[in-house]
Amino acid sequence: MELSVLGQSDAEQHGAGGCSSGSCGSSDDQLAHLPEHIRAKVHNHPCYSEEAHHYFARMHVAVAPACNIQCHYCNRKYDCANESRPGVVSEVLDPLQAVKKVKAVAATIPQMTVLGIAGPGDPLANPERTFETFRMLSEQAPDIKLCVSTNGLALPDCVDELAKHNIDHVTITINCVDPEVGAKIYPWIYWNNQRIRGKKAAKILIERQQKGLEMLVARGILVKVNSVLIPGVNDEHLKEVSRIVKAKGAFLHNVMPLIAEAEHGTFYGVMGQRSPEPEELQDLQDACAGDMNMMRHCRQCRADAVGLLGEDRGDEFTLDKIEAMDIDYAAAMVKRAAIHAAIKEELDDKAAKKARLAGLAVPRLEATQSKAPRPVLMAVATSGGGLVNQHYGHATEFLVYEASASGVRFIGHRKVDQYCVGNDSCGEKESALAGSIRALKGCEAVLCSKIGYEPWGLLEEAGIQPNGEHAMEPIEEAVLAVYQEMLQAGRLAPDEAPLRANA
Ligand code: CLF
Ligand code: SF4
C-alpha cells in the first residue's frame, strides 16, 4: 500500500489489480499479497524488495572471471555490465578466499543478508568456482541468502545444481526475445565448443534463456529478469520481453540503462551508442509495469560490491585486510540474528504507521482540491534506514520519488559527484555542485537533512526548492508532507503539465 493522498484505493486509481505504483514487488507493503514462503524469500533481499534495500546489504564475490558470450556493452577488462557499473574488479578470488571474505563481511556488517555471484564474467560459465563457493557457504554461513546472476546460456545445464545448493534467487539478463534484435547486441556466443555468430547465436542464447527461466520457475526458484535498455536497439522491444517473461513466471523485471562510455572500450561506447535519459528509462519502466513487477532501485553494482545498494565498502575487505581479521562466525551469527530481528520490528512499526497515515492524509487534501493535483518529482538525500538523513553536500546519489494524487512512489535514483568534500580549492567543487543540480533535472524539490547557502541559492535559481525541514523523518511521509504544502500553496494546479525539464 502507498501513502494515499485522495483516499481512493491505489488499485482503483490505476485499474491494476493491487499494483498501485507500477513498482509492486519492490516494497514490503506491496509484497503483502504474496504467499508467506515467497515473502520469506524476499523480505530481507535488498534487490527483490525496495523497502529492504534501505536496511539490508548485499555483497558480491568475484569468483567467475570467464564468459561464454560477448555483449556489445561489455569489455572484459571491466565488470560485467549486466550486474555492475564499469570498473575493474579489484581482486578475482578463489572459492576459499571468497568464503573467508563473506564471513568477514557478515561479521562486520550484520545487515549483509545476501551473497551474490555476478561476475566479473558469467558465474555459470565458471561452474566449478561458482558452485564450490556456494557449497562452502551453505555449510558455513547458512543464514546468508545465495543469489546468482547469469546471461542464461549455460543455465539449463545448471538448474539441478542451483536447486541442490538452495539458491532461491536467480537473475537472468534477457535483452531480447527476437534474434534480429539479439544480433545487434551479441556478436557471438561460445556454445558446444564452437564460436557461433550473428542471428544464429542470438537464437540459441534466447532459447537457452527462456528454457532456463521455465526450468527455474518449475522448481519454485525466484527469477528476476534484468534487461539493458539500449535506445534504438531494444527499447520498444523490451515491452514484449516484459510480457513474455512475466507470462513464464518471472517474479521481477529490472530494466537498467545502458552504460556506454568510449573510455570503457566497449563496442557501443566506441561506436557512440547513446545511453537512455532518466525520463526514457522511467517511461519504459512505467509502460512495462502494466505487465510486470518492476525493480527501480537497481544500482548496477560492481561484481565485487559490498554494502547497502548505492554504497561500496569493498576497500575495507581486501584480502590483506581480511587476513588480519579474527572472525568468530558463531558469535557473529548471534549478533546478526538480533540485528535482523530489530530491523524487522522497525519495518513492522513503519508499515503500521504508514497505514494509519494513509487514512489521515485524505481529509486534508480533499478539503483543498476537488480535482487530482498534478504529480511532482522530488529528490531525497539519504544514507539509509528509509530516512531523510543526509546533508545535500554529502550525497553521492539522490533517490527520486513521485508524489501524486495516488500517493508516493519510488521512481529511481540519480548519481552525483559528492560536492562537499572538505576541499575549498576550486573549480572542481563548483562543477560538482553544478553537476548535482543538473542531475536533479525534472525534480521540483530536494529533501535533505541540511544544505548550505550556496547550493540553496543555485537550486532555487534552477527551479528546485531545497527543503531541510523534514530531517530524520521517514522518506515517504516527508515527501507527502512537502506535496501537501505545495498543494496548499496552490502550486499544483491539475491542468498544469508535470514539470519534466527545469534545469
Ligand atoms: Fe547481486 Fe544481483 Fe543478487 Fe542483487 S545485485 S546478484 S540480485 S545480490 Fe541488485 Fe546490484 Fe541491481 Fe543486481 S542492485 S545490479 S539487481
Ligand atoms: Fe560481459 Fe556479462 Fe555480457 Fe559476459 S554476459 S559479455 S561478462 S556483460
Automatic annotation (TrEMBL):
Tell whether tRNA processing is among the UniProt keywords.
Answer: no
What's in the keyword line of the UniProt record?
4Fe-4S, Iron, Iron-sulfur, Lyase, Metal-binding, S-adenosyl-L-methionine
What does this protein need as cofactor? [4Fe-4S] cluster
Q: Has the keyword 4Fe-4S been applied to this entry?
A: yes
Question: Record's Pfam families?
Answer: Nitro_FeMo-Co, Radical_SAM
Instruction: Show where the Radical SAM core domain sits.
Output: 53-302
Q: What top-level branch of life does the organism fall under?
A: Bacteria
The record, for InterPro entries, names: Di-Nase_FeMo-co_biosynth, MoaA_NifB_PqqE_Fe-S-bd_CS, Nase_CF_NifB, NifB_C, rSAM
Which PROSITE patterns does this chain map to?
MOAA_NIFB_PQQE, RADICAL_SAM
- Give the signal peptide range: none
Start and end residues of each stretch annotated as Disordered: 1-22
**Role noted for this protein:** Involved in the biosynthesis of the iron-molybdenum cofactor (FeMo-co or M-cluster) found in the dinitrogenase enzyme of the nitrogenase complex in nitrogen-fixing microorganisms. NifB catalyzes the crucial step of radical SAM-dependent carbide insertion that occurs concomitant with the insertion of a 9th sulfur and the rearrangement/coupling of two [4Fe-4S] clusters into a [8Fe-9S-C] cluster, the precursor to the M-cluster.
Q: What PANTHER family does the annotation carry?
A: FEMO COFACTOR BIOSYNTHESIS PROTEIN NIFB, FEMO COFACTOR BIOSYNTHESIS PROTEIN NIFB-RELATED
Name of this chain's protein: FeMo cofactor biosynthesis protein NifB
Native species of this protein?
Geopseudomonas aromaticivorans
Question: What high-level taxonomic lineage is stated for the organism?
Answer: Bacteria, Pseudomonadati, Pseudomonadota, Gammaproteobacteria, Pseudomonadales
| Name of the coding gene | nifB
